[in-house]
């Protein structure tokens, strides 16, 4: 609804950009986050539709899908430190996103340098979504990359 309301104003400017926000749960199963995943999947679909419908007016529409983020929300989990270490174990570099990681992606997508990007979903998640089997990435890598004796 907000996008439709704002689109008429953006159409008059001739060249604009909308960035929606999603999460990795839109495309990956994350236990306990089913309702968020379904809603974020709808946001990603809306992004593609708006990109197609508004492109003729010079409006680009893209989406940033974030992984787990360091910050206040994480601290609301019981055993926040354990939860943080758990989520970090699912990224290849052992880090979660910072709010600035997401802001930088958004800043780029609204810039002129991104003028050829429209209808895309950008994963900003330190590789969280690349771990397809749901196992801890770093623990798995340590097992796989251990030198073997022959």
**Strand arrangement across the biggest beta sheet:** 1-2-3
Give the DSSP E fraction (strand runs of 2 or more residues).
5-15%
Residues in helix, %: 40-55%
Overall mean pLDDT score? 85
- Most strands sheet: 3 strands, parallel
Total helical elements: 6
User: Runs with pLDDT <50, length 5+?
Assistant: 142-148
CATH fold group: Rossmann fold
Structural category: alpha/beta
Descriptive notes:
Strands 1-2-3 form a 3-stranded parallel sheet, with helices on both faces. It has 6 helices and 3 strands. The chain has helices at 2-13, 34-54, 72-75, 80-88, 99-109, 137-145, and strands spanning 16-23, 59-66, 121-124. The chain is of the alpha/beta class and 150 residues long. Helix 2 links the parallel strand 1 (16-23) and strand 2. Helices cover 44% and strands 13% of the residues. The model is unreliable at 142-148 (pLDDT under 50). The chain has one domain: Rossmann fold.
